[in-house]
Structure formats: structure tokens, C-alpha cells
Write a structure and sequence with these properties.
The protein has 368 residues and is α+β, with helices and mostly antiparallel strands. Helices cover 58% and strands 15% of the residues. It contains 11 helices and 7 strands. Strand 5 and strand 6 form a beta hairpin.
């Protein structure tokens, strides 16, 4: 393409000797996922150690090294820093991880931090990984923390498109950005399904739904932290198109990635808003249910109280004749009215009068 940068602009000067104080690079261990040396968009070798990668790159200054690491040791990062003149602050960030997405430029080296995500169907949760990318004139180094993202598919894709890979480390960076952003799509679909299920559970009265809403809301906070900064980062890269002479194909590539990440960021913002509204609705429904239960308990207590009043009233009415009968049932000789001819009718009338009086008193007070 006519506006493509000359290949020499991507290379270190062949006569540039390695630093005398550079430590001996360690052999490739479990942390070195894959290393490759590329020339004109084609892989020319697959070094097995970092030392071999460094040596071959010095012998072929027109090549590009693509080194992939996962959870590297401190010695490995210091070796890379010494060989490629990486800034100590960027190296420190790559060692410690737990960084927010950002884009920083240190001289000729671009340092990018990305947060990848994947949806775990079995656990119904979002797993986040962290990726640090160092982009130089003739090298690209990826430092991965966590299971996501898997960059082997990115490497295969780029190797199958030599014309795109021949554009250099910037093209690989954009392919990585595209892979990370594309990886958000299954997460968005999974979260959308979770929200649909939560809405059903909320109106179904599931008591465990509150915890699920809270856990998903926390994941959306993390997802928002992963996607929102990417919008500004990509716009920052696009702003430097003219200054750094970015190839037109890469410009279109980056604009497409920016569109996708903007759409994803808007969806995530919508998810957070939806979960907030669902949590409010759930709290309202729970409150209504609790009020209904309290009202039912109060009504049951009122009915029980009414029954107790009736029982107590009849017990008091029946207690009056029992008391009179008990008194006159005592076996004493000197008791009033025992020898009175009207003693028995008087006792009966007294019992009836007391019972009738108590009945009307309780009836008047709505106890009966």
C-alpha cells in the first residue's frame, strides 16, 4: 500500500551491539508458551529458549520476534527487559499483574494492559484473565496471567495471513486486541441469559435470587473495568495514526475493534443498570411478601385472641354456678339457708342471675 511504512523503520540498527551487562537469558520453561521469529510475514524459526530467540534476532535484524509467556519468572522478565530495553515500570507492572487496562508509551516501546474474559457455563460466572503486551520495532512480547486469553488462535490466524503479519508488531497487537474484544461476546450472551433467568426467579419468589443478583452485579463491575478503559485506549491509538504512519489496513482493523468494544461497553453498562433495577424490584417484592406474612400473622393472632376471649367468657359464666354449688355442697351443720324452705330456689335463681349478668356483660363488650 502506498502509505505503508518502510520496513527499515520497524528494525533495530544491525550494528547495535547487545548490552554488556545483559544477564544470560534462562531456558524456556513452563512460562514460555511459544516463541517464533518471523520475516516478511512467515515464520522462519521456532527457538526453544529465550537465549536462542535473542541470538537469532540479532543475526537477522530484518526479522520480528513474537514471544508468548504465561506467568513468567522475575529472571525471565529481567532478561527480556535487558535485551529489548523495556522500561522498568512496565516490567514491574507485568510481574505484579492486577493492573487496570491501559496504554503507555516508553520511547519506541508500547506497553498495553488488557483484561480478557470468558464465561464458565458450569459455574455460571465470568472468569477474568490479564494480558500485558510489549510492542517494539521488531518484537512483540505477551505476558499472560490467568487462563484467558488463549493466543494460540491469534498466532495461527496471523500465520495464515502473511500479508497482514508482514505489517509488523502493530498488526499482531491489533489482532490481539480483536481476539480479546471478540472474547467478550460469549460473556455478554451468557450474562444476558443469567439476567433472563434471574428475572424469572425474582417473580417466582425464589429466596436465593438476591445472592445471585449480588454476585452477578460484582462480576459486571469487573467486566466494566475491563471494557470501559478500552474505548479510550483504542481512540488514543487511532489518534496516533498520522503521527506513527499506521498502515491503512490496520487503521480499518482498529476502527472495527473500537466499534465492537464500544458496543460491548454499552451492553455492560446496560447490564449493570438492569441488575440494579432487578435488585430494587426484588427488594420491593420481598418487602411486600414480608408485609403479607406479617399481616397474616396479625390476623391469625387477632382470631386467636377472639377465641380466647370467648373461652374465657364462657369459663367465667360457668364458674359462677360452680362456685355457688361448691359452697352449698360443703357438709357443715351451721350454714345459712340450709333449713330455709326457699333456700334451694334462691340458690338456683342466684346462679341464673349471675350467669345471665355475666353473659350480657361479655356480650356488650363483644367477647361473645
Amino acid at each position: 500500500m502506498s502509505d505503508r511504512r518502510p520496513r527499515a523503520a520497524w528494525r533495530r540498527t544491525p550494528a547495535e551491539p547487545p548490552a554488556a551487562t545483559s544477564p544470560e537469558p534462562p531456558a524456556a520453561g513452563p512460562s514460555v508458551v511459544q516463541a517464533g521469529l518471523y520475516r516478511d510475514g512467515h515464520r522462519v524459526s521456532s527457538p526453544e529458549t529465550l537465549a536462542e530467540t535473542f541470538r537469532q534476532l540479532r543475526e537477522h535484524p530484518d526479522g520480528m520476534a513474537w514471544i508468548g509467556l504465561k506467568g513468567p519468572t522475575e529472571d525471565e522478565l529481567h532478561s527480556l527487559a535487558a535485551e529489548f530495553d523495556l522500561h522498568e515500570l512496565a516490567v514491574e507492572d507485568a510481574m505484579e499483574a492486577h493492573q487496570r487496562p491501559k496504554l503507555e508509551r516508553y520511547g519506541d516501546t508500547l506497553f498495553v494492559v488488557l483484561r480478557a474474559a470468558r464465561y464458565l457455563d458450569a459455574q455460571e460466572e465470568v472468569d477474568f484473565g490479564e494480558l500485558h503486551v510489549f510492542v517494539g520495532r521488531d518484537f512483540l512480547i505477551t505476558v499472560r496471567h490467568g487462563a484467558a486469553p488463549d493466543l494460540s488462535a491469534v498466532r495461527r490466524r496471523m500465520e495464515e495471513d502473511p500479508e497482514l503479519l508482514a505489517l509488523g508488531p502493530e498488526a499482531v497487537l491489533y489482532a490481539i486486541l480483536d481476539a480479546v474484544v471478540d472474547g467478550y461476546a460469549p460473556v455478554v450472551e451468557g450474562v444476558q441469559n443469567d439476567i433472563d433467568e434471574i428475572e424469572t426467579e425474582v417473580f417466582g419468589g425464589d429466596p436465593a435470587v438476591s445472592r445471585r443478583i449480588y454476585e452477578l452485579s460484582r462480576e459486571m463491575v469487573e467486566f466494566q473495568r475491563a471494557t470501559r478503559p478500552l474505548v479510550g485506549m483504542l481512540h488514543g491509538l487511532m489518534a496516533g495514526f498520522a503521527k506513527y504512519g499506521t498502515d491503512e489496513e490496520l487503521q480499518r482493523y482498529l476502527r472495527d475493534v473500537a466499534d465492537h468494544v464500544t458496543h460491548t461497553s454499552e451492553r455492560v453498562d446496560g447490564f449493570r443498570q438492569a441488575l440494579t433495577e432487578i435488585l430494587t424490584v426484588n427488594a420491593t417484592l420481598v418487602t411486600q411478601q414480608q408485609n403479607a406474612e406479617m399481616r397474616a400473622l396479625a390476623e391469625a393472632g387477632f382470631e386467636q385472641n377472639e377465641e380466647i376471649k370467648k373461652i374465657s367468657s364462657w369459663a367465667a359464666i360457668l364458674f359462677a354456678p360452680t362456685l355457688v354449688g361448691t359452697i352449698y355442697g360443703m357438709n357443715f351443720d351451721a350454714m345459712p339457708e340450709l333449713d330455709w324452705a326457699f333456700g334451694y330456689p334462691f340458690a338456683i335463681l342466684l346462679m341464673a342471675a349471675v350467669c345471665t349478668s355475666l353473659y350480657f356483660i361479655f356480650k356488650r363488650r363483644d367477647w361473645l
